[in-house]
From TrEMBL:
Pathway: Amino-acid biosynthesis; L-isoleucine biosynthesis; L-isoleucine from 2-oxobutanoate: step 1/4; Amino-acid biosynthesis; L-valine biosynthesis; L-valine from pyruvate: step 1/4. InterPro entries: Acetalactate_synth_ssu, Acetolactate_synth/TF_NikR_C, Acetolactate_synth_ssu_C, ACT-like_dom_sf, ACT_dom, AHAS_ACT, AHAS_small-like_ACT. The gene is ilvN. Pfam families: ACT_AHAS_ss, ALS_ss_C. This is Acetolactate synthase small subunit. It comes from Marivita cryptomonadis. Residues 30-105 form the ACT domain. Dimer of large and small chains. Keywords: Amino-acid biosynthesis, Branched-chain amino acid biosynthesis, Transferase. GO terms for biological process: isoleucine biosynthetic process; L-valine biosynthetic process. Its EC number is 2.2.1.6.
Length: 186
């Protein structure tokens, strides 16, 4: 036996077998990052992602405490569980970052997104666009004889579904805010 009491040829505790303990499954996580509201902080956070080849699916940022000079960055990203843990750890090491919360694993959260959707059409397509907007509770915020601009809020999946239904009806342009999210409860 070797000094580590591992039988020769055994892969149970072999360094070559560690890969089986890691997951290759891609997961989507929503991260809430509270940062000092100072120049360059957003660039440093984004630099962390781009420098390591991580993708950002959605990014929103706004000041949440004027007196405390604190901003909240909400990032939706996708990766293996190991990559997500690495992202959280690296974010936590950036000096102006006060807190990093993974809303996906910390319990329930509320996620909403706002989108403005321009649809061009006439006749039946125009009527169908208005009917679908009513079903999705989208509001008409601008109207001409040739087009509508709809405003819709909801989960990213709801916005995606509405956009997909508008494509064959004359979708012209889409502007989305990105995800804003808060954890449920206190």
């Amino acid at each position: 036996m070797s000094p580590l009491n591992i039988k020769k040829g055994s892969t149970k505790h072999s360094a070559y077998n560690l890969r089986s303990t890691f997951s290759d499954v891609q997961e989507t996580h929503t991260l809430a990052v509270l940062v000092a509201n100072e120049p360059g902080v957003l660039a440093r956070v984004i630099g962390l992602f781009s420098g390591r080849g991580y993708n950002i699916d959605s990014l929103t940022v706004a000041e949440v405490d004027h007196a405390g000079h604190t901003s909240r960055i909400t990032i939706v990203t996708t990766g293996t569980p190991q990559v997500i843990e690495q992202i959280k750890a690296q974010l936590g090491r950036i000096v102006p970052v006060h807190e990093v919360h993974d809303l996906t694993v910390e319990g329930g959260s509320v996620e909403r997104e706002l989108a403005l959707i321009k649809v061009e059409g006439s006749g039946e397509k125009r009527v169908e666009a208005l009917r679908l907007a009513d079903i999705f509770r989208a509001q008409v915020v601008d109207s001409t004889l040739e087009s509508f601009v709809f405003q819709i809020t909801g989960t990213p999946e709801k916005v995606d579904a509405f956009v997909d239904l508008m494509r064959p009806l004359g979708l012209v342009e889409v502007a989305r805010t990105g995800v804003a999210a808060l954890s449920r409860g206190v």
